[in-house]
## 1
Amino acid sequence: MLSSRASTIRTFAAWLVCASGVAYLASPWFRPLDAAAVMAIVLGATYLIVGLGLFGQSRFTLFVATALCAVNILMSLQALPEPLTPITQLAIATDTTAMLCCIAVLILRWKQTPG
């Protein structure tokens, strides 16, 4: 059983990941349909599935969410010589916050484990 603090942090991370997923799924309506838009749809569906999984109790979902957010941050920062748009900055901030929340819940669960 998770402590109240860990449960609250996990729920916050779940809402962040789900909101990012919905944003990625909605992004093709605001730009031309190309390969990047299709990747945004796939990424959004993945974020939504992982975000819904974060509402559960699985420790595996915490690892998957951490890895997914980290990979997306690295992919977003590949085009660093170009200035980041405000939407990209918001996505990076959201992913970083969700990733840190998942890591915090993993640490809290690790400290609770007897032995």
## 2
Amino acid sequence: MMEQEQRRFTVEKEGQEEMGGTASTLKENGNLNFILDIPLEISVELGRAKILISELLQLGQGSVVELAKLAGEPLEILINQKLVARGEVVVVNEKFGVRLTDIISPAERVKQLGD
């Protein structure tokens, strides 16, 4: 039989000595290693539009769909469909990228969990 590795984790209140108080300390102790390889989906939203089914059926190659977002407005950066930051388009090695210009506060990110 294959032997399974077992780890014991404890949760302590913030400020207690055992935890060390920082994410880097937790990482060094290996307490976060089990989540570091979890894949996350990052998407960047350029804008949105609402159209009628009749308009959808008329779309063809070369059609233009007008988005509700103005040119130059920050793009929304989502991780697993939750807003975490805003940014602007950049080109990196002939590929598109996004430069983060605003990070959503932790309080707002927690609020989104209920959505």
